[in-house]
TrEMBL record:
<dbReference type="GO" id="GO:0009272">
    <property type="term" value="P:fungal-type cell wall biogenesis"/>
</dbReference>
<comment type="similarity">
    <text>Belongs to the glycosyl hydrolase 76 family.</text>
</comment>
<dbReference type="GO" id="GO:0012505">
    <property type="term" value="C:endomembrane system"/>
</dbReference>
<feature type="transmembrane region" description="Helical">
    <location>
        <begin position="431"/>
        <end position="453"/>
    </location>
</feature>
<feature type="signal peptide">
    <location>
        <begin position="1"/>
        <end position="20"/>
    </location>
</feature>
<keyword id="KW-0812">Transmembrane</keyword>
<keyword id="KW-0326">Glycosidase</keyword>
<dbReference type="GO" id="GO:0016052">
    <property type="term" value="P:carbohydrate catabolic process"/>
</dbReference>
<dbReference type="Pfam" id="PF03663">
    <property type="entry name" value="Glyco_hydro_76"/>
</dbReference>
<dbReference type="InterPro" id="IPR008928">
    <property type="entry name" value="6-hairpin_glycosidase_sf"/>
</dbReference>
<keyword id="KW-0378">Hydrolase</keyword>
<keyword id="KW-0325">Glycoprotein</keyword>
<dbReference type="InterPro" id="IPR014480">
    <property type="entry name" value="Mannan-1_6-alpha_mannosidase"/>
</dbReference>
<dbReference type="GO" id="GO:0008496">
    <property type="term" value="F:mannan endo-1,6-alpha-mannosidase activity"/>
</dbReference>
<dbReference type="InterPro" id="IPR005198">
    <property type="entry name" value="Glyco_hydro_76"/>
</dbReference>
<keyword id="KW-0472">Membrane</keyword>
<feature type="region of interest" description="Disordered">
    <location>
        <begin position="399"/>
        <end position="427"/>
    </location>
</feature>
Amino acid sequence: MLSTTHLLTAVLAGSSVAHAAYSIASESDIKTSAKQLAADLMAYYHGDDYGGIPGILPGPPPNGDYYWWEGGALWGTMIDYWHLTGDTTYNNVTKEAMLFQVGPQDNYEPPNVTASLGNDDQGFWGMSAMLAAENNFENPPDDQPQWLALAQAVFNRQASPDRHDDTCGGGLRWQIPLSNNGYNYKNSIANGCFFNLGARLARYTKNETYAMWAEKTWNWVTSVGLMDADYNIYDGAHVEKNCTDINKAQFSYNNAVYLLGAAYMYNYTNGSDVWKQRTSDLLNATINVFFPNHIAYEVACEQGKTCTTDMLSFKGYLHRWMATATRVAPFIRGTVMDVLKTSTEAAVKQCTGGDTGRVCGFQWSSGVYDGTYGAGQQMNVLGAVSSLLIDNVAAPVSNDTGGTSVGNPNAGGNDDNINKPTSPPTTADKAGASILTILVLGCAVGTFGWMSLGA
Ligand SMILES: *[C@@H]1O[C@H](CO)[C@@H](O)[C@H](O)[C@H]1NC(C)=O
Ligand SMILES: *[C@@H]1O[C@H](CO)[C@@H](O)[C@H](O)[C@H]1NC(C)=O
Ligand SMILES: *[C@@H]1O[C@H](CO)[C@@H](O)[C@H](O)[C@H]1NC(C)=O
Ligand SMILES: *[C@@H]1O[C@H](CO)[C@@H](O)[C@H](O)[C@H]1NC(C)=O
Ligand SMILES: *[C@@H]1O[C@H](CO)[C@@H](O)[C@H](O)[C@H]1NC(C)=O
Ligand SMILES: *[C@@H]1O[C@H](CO)[C@@H](O)[C@H](O)[C@H]1NC(C)=O
Ligand SMILES: *[C@@H]1O[C@H](CO)[C@@H](O)[C@H](O)[C@H]1NC(C)=O
Ligand SMILES: *[C@@H]1O[C@H](CO)[C@@H](O)[C@H](O)[C@H]1NC(C)=O
C-alpha cells in the first residue's frame, strides 16, 4: 500500500525531488531496472502464501482486484522476463503457477472458473504456455502436462465445432458456457487469441491445419468488420444483430495480439507478400492509434481515467508482443524499436510513486506519476523495459530449430466442465437465454465493451 503522507511529502517537496528511479541507458541499467520492477510486480502475487491459490493474482472480484486471466498474463510476462534478462529467480514459481491452473483435462478450463470463462481468458493462459515452448522455458516433469501440449489443448478446444456456430457467419463467441453473461457477444480479443495461437502453432509444428484456422479467423474478423479496411480493430458485436452493431471501442491488446499473429504468419509463410502487407499495415495503424508522440496510450479509457483493472495491463502486452514480432518479421524491427524505446523512456520516467519512490502509474505520456498503482501498471513497465533486450536473445524456437517441448496434437479433452446444451435447448433454457439477452442488449452500446474485457 502507498502511504499518503509520503505522497504529500513528495508533492510538497516539488517534482524535482521525485527523479526517476529507473534507468534504461545501458544493457546493465535495463537489467537492474527490470529486476526491481519484477520484484515489485511479484509483491502483488500471494499464491504461495499460506492459504493462497497458486497461479492467480488476488481475486476474482469481489475477493480481490484481478480476474483469473490476468494470472495467465502475469506468467507470460515472467517467462519473457527470464528469457530477456536471464534472471531465473521466478522460474520455479512460474512453472508451479502455470501447472496449477490447467484444470482436470489439462486445457485451462478449471471447473471453478467456468462461470466467467471466456475464450480470451483461456487464450491468455494458452498463449503463455505457447511462449514457454517458444522460449524453451524449463519443461515440466514427464508426468505433468507439457507446454506445447497445453497450447494445443487450448487451441483444440477453441477449434472444436461446438465453439463455432453460424451466427455472424462464424467466429468465436466471447464467453464459453451458454449461461454466461456475454455468450451472445463475438469479440476481437477472443478471436485474436485463437488467431495468435494458430499462427504460432503453425510455425512451431509446421502443421498446416493451424495456419488454415488462423487464415479463416482473420478472414472472418475482417469480413464482419471487427477489423476495418484501415486496420482499426473494434471491440465486438452481438449475435442477435448478426454482428452489425459493432462496438467501436479500440483497445491496444487487440492490435498487439493480431500484430504478433500476423508476424508469425509472415514467418510461417516464408515471407509471403500477403502477410507482409498485413503485418506492416496493422503496425502502422497500431502506432497511429496507440502511440501518440510515440508513447503508449490506451485511447479508449486513459484520458477519462476510466480504465478498468483489466485495461490497466494492456500496455505491457502491446510492448512485449510488438518486440517479439520483430524477431519473426525482422523487416519491422527499426520502426517498432524506435517507438518502443521512446515509449519506455516515458514509462520509467513516471515511476516515482509510493514509499519507495519507484511505484509506476499508468499515464506514461503525462511525465509524472499519476497516483495509481497495481499489478497491471507494474507489469506494463516491466514488459516495456525488459523488451528493450529483445535483440540480445534467441528468436522464438520451433520444433525444428531447437524447441524441446513435447506436443500432443489431440490434447484438449471434452466439454465435461462446461454447461453446453447436449440436446436442443428446452423452453426454460431459451427463456433464460433471452432474458440474459435482453439484459445485455439493454445496456449494450457504450458500456458493453468494458464487460467484454477479460472477466
Ligand atoms: C527450483 O526448484 C528446483 C527443484 O525443486 C531447485 O533445485 C532449485 O534450487 C529451485 N530454484 C530456485 C531459484 O528456487
Ligand atoms: C479452484 O479449485 C482449485 C482446485 O481444486 C482450488 O485449489 C482453488 O482454491 C479454487 N479456487 C477458488 C477461487 O475457489
Ligand atoms: C450475417 O452476417 C454474415 C457475415 O457478415 C453474412 O455473411 C450473412 O449474410 C448475414 N446474415 C444475414 C441474415 O444478414
Ligand atoms: C495437425 O493438427 C490437427 C489439428 O489439431 C490435428 O488433427 C492433426 O492430427 C495434426 N497433424 C499432425 C501430423 O500432427
Ligand atoms: C517454407 O519454405 C520451406 C523450405 O523451402 C518449405 O518446406 C515450406 O513448405 C514453406 N512453407 C510454406 C508455408 O510455404
Ligand atoms: C523467420 O524467423 C526467423 C527467426 O526465427 C528469422 O531468422 C527469419 O528471417 C524469419 N523469416 C522471414 C521471412 O523474415
Ligand atoms: C499509415 O496510416 C496513416 C493513417 O491511417 C495513413 O495515412 C498512411 O497512409 C499509412 N501509411 C502506410 C505506409 O500505410
Ligand atoms: C519434433 O522434433 C523431434 C526431433 O527433434 C521429432 O522427433 C518430432 O517428430 C517432431 N515433431 C513434430 C510434430 O514434427
